[in-house]
């Protein structure tokens, strides 16, 4: 058996607390653009955006087109709302607890760190930089820039090639049972599920509640691997 040399992370819902970030962003957007939005109640605007966004699985051009239509927003186009999102979202990024301390600990233990995230290239990179974590990861693969996305095996294979590790020498940590956990397992990596209220009965090699558990999972895996040598 192989010693674990690398940890690959998902971004949204794993390192970035996207639910909390979206709530802060959309409240600020309502206040910032209140001149055009004040015929809608703040709660209604926030609630409807969150529903249409579907936790990031619907790109915001569709969301804002729907909002403009439903709420009869005038004097502001859906594209202007979208540009505001693209430019300003990074200012509302909220990390999950123990993000930096966990990355520091892994770094100090000479664990290589990679990231795979689906999404728009510059937008996701802006959010990564806003969290102050860009320096910990090499490589960072973003689906728009790579031309392939999770759960496709190519993007997982690409991160392994760049890290120069075998699948059995790496683990993938993410919040989505299919796009993260199962997709990583399909290429031979260990799949670690960061628990999310949206799913249950997830089949993963490990299930964790917080990022601080990653070093403990590595210890357990490496201990087991040493015993089986």
Secondary-structure topology with pairs:
Blueprint: E1 6-9, H1 18-32, H2 34-37, H3 42-53, H4 60-70, H5 78-88, H6 99-108, E2 112-117, H7 121-130, E3 140-142, H8 143-146, H9 153-163, E4 170-174, H10 177-186, E5 190-194, E6 206-208, H11 214-228
Helix pairs in contact: 1-3, 3-4, 4-5
Structure summarized in a few sentences:
The protein is an alpha/beta fold and about 230 residues long. The chain is about 50% helix and about 10% strand. Strands 3-2-1-4-5-6 form a 6-stranded parallel sheet, sandwiched between helices.
Structural write-up:
The chain has 229 residues and is an alpha/beta fold. The chain folds into 2 domains: 6-17 and 95-228, HAD superfamily/HAD-like (Rossmann fold), CATH 3.40.50.1000; 18-92. The protein is 49% helix and 11% strand. It has helices at residues 18-32, 34-37, 42-53, 60-70, 78-88, 99-108, 121-130, 143-146, 153-163, 177-186, 214-228; strands spanning 6-9, 112-117, 140-142, 170-174, 190-194, 206-208. Strands 3-2-1-4-5-6 form a 6-stranded parallel beta sheet, sandwiched between helices. Helix 4 (60-70) packs across helix 5. The protein is elongated, with a radius of gyration of 19 Å. The mean pLDDT is 96.
Distance between the termini: 6 Å
Please name the CATH topology of the largest domain.
Answer: Rossmann fold
How large, in whole angstroms, is the Cα Rg? 19 Å
CATH superfamily of the largest domain: HAD superfamily/HAD-like
Helix content: 40-55%
